[in-house]
Structure prediction request, 589 residues.
Amino acid sequence: MGKTIAEKILSHHADKDLRAGDIAICKVDACFGQDGTSSLIIENFEKLGKKGVFDNTKFCMFIDHSAPSPNIGVSTIHKMMRTFAKKESVKLFDIGQGICHQLMVEKGNITCGDLVLGADSHTCTYGALNIFSTGMGSTDLAIAAASGKNWFKVPETIKILVSGKLPLGVYAKDVILSIIKDITSKGANYMALEFYGNAIKHMSLASRFTMANMCVEMGAKCGLFEADRKVLDWVKSHAKRKPQPVKADENATYAAVKEYDVSSLTPQVSMPHEVDNVASIEAVVGTPIDEAFIGTCTNGRLEDLEIAAKILKNKNLAGHVKLVIGPASRDIFLSAAKKGYIDIFVDSGAVVVAPGCGPCVGTHNGVPADGENVISTANRNFKGRMGNPGAHIFLASPATVAASAIEGKICDPRIFSKRLK
Amino acid sequence: MINRAHRLLKIQDNVNTDYIISGRYKFRIRDPGELAKHVFEDVEEDFYKKIKKGDFLVSGENFGSGSSREQAPLALKASGLKAVIAKSFARIFYRNALNLGLYLLECNTNYIDDSNELELDLEKNVIKNKSKGLNIPFKPIPPLAKKILAEGGMVEYFKKHGGIEVEP
Prediction:
């Protein structure tokens, strides 16, 4: 019997033959915490009584969830992280450098075939690089940082085939939202996903990161993509380690096979307060909005900012709308500035904030008021997610969010199709 | 001592970690007892006041979905809850609760109403619903999980065994 990608990567890291359902100890190639989870990692790590981090090149920390710090409590946690990083000689990515998931793919020295753990649920993002990467909690990360290992239950896999050419104004975000609608927020609990098909093949890496990022919204452990030429080029230019691409066997066993044709897909919107509450744009067009947000580990990359800039160029935001834009990393911020996108955003009336997670997790930089509607490119719209349980959050692609910010209400981005060509 | 079931009135399935403890608190409060005062605050005011030590939280499918924040099970444990009983649990939450020594029991929770009196029998894998006179079987806890829970959590387990063992 053949194996899935997840079965192969976990077998390799456990040095034994594993199948879905097996429990094993596996070595990890990289692991990390962020400022929402690191205080508990550090406290637990110190309780374990180990001399130091197992390998100071394989554990790092990111200050991204509240960066720069909005209050004393957070500043105390940041200080604790800086002190720990210095003591253990581990890399700390401090304020303004970006969101952990973008920095891991840019500077994390991770490569195809790796097993990566992060104390953040969206760690599944690097599945786009043919990496088994998954989120765990702080204690699990403390165990990994101390021993270089943790226990894993080998997941079953759902195979997802995405075919067809995406219509103009429809993007990877719309594809993954439509898949989440079908699979539901619990439909892939404890499972791995594997993505194939010509629609995936034609996607940029940034688009694949968007898709892999949201796999956890279906409960999945990871969302794995093949190591094609684009993936190999990326890891060769971003990681020093040699890629070990992993392919599923043709006779691998899958829990299910799902097929999607995206050639007539429309822009999709996830409605309050669940990510899988997805509708096609027509169902919500005209809904008034008070705030719009473009950024996050889902959609804060250069191609996302490029789409937003095309739509916002020489346009003004609707009078009452607040548009917040957060590039996912410092490198992306700089590239966007060089290309003139930042000028376009500021000219339109948008506020560009430091690279980080802030607005998406409700820590600062745009907490909505009671009764306000927000449209965002993030990955979660749970009640209270942006810091106020009285607000309503809609999730959509950068194009839909930018178009809505101009119109002051949820808007079909295809009315700007001339700009999107 | 009588221990009771608590159900959220408005949400039964997909209770996510943002509902358990809002991100507003996770980033600035480190004291578990303080966190516990804010559990389910966005979905039901003053919920924590109902909980007495050893009580049970009862829910539906996919409990604990969403973020990896360990503050969620930490706050639940600090609130005094002995266990969460649900039809199913989200993966990261399951590991986090286990690591902290909070029991998670999977069973058909349709047989448990809010404020029912419950007793847990970990040997026979049943929850006794004394209010209804029902014995509800729960899915046996996997061997490794049982060992971690017996030590009161992963940190204690790791210290005692010097690592993790999965062999039977």
In short: DSSP finds 16 helices and 18 strands in chain A. Chain A touches chain B through 54 residues (CB under 8 Å).
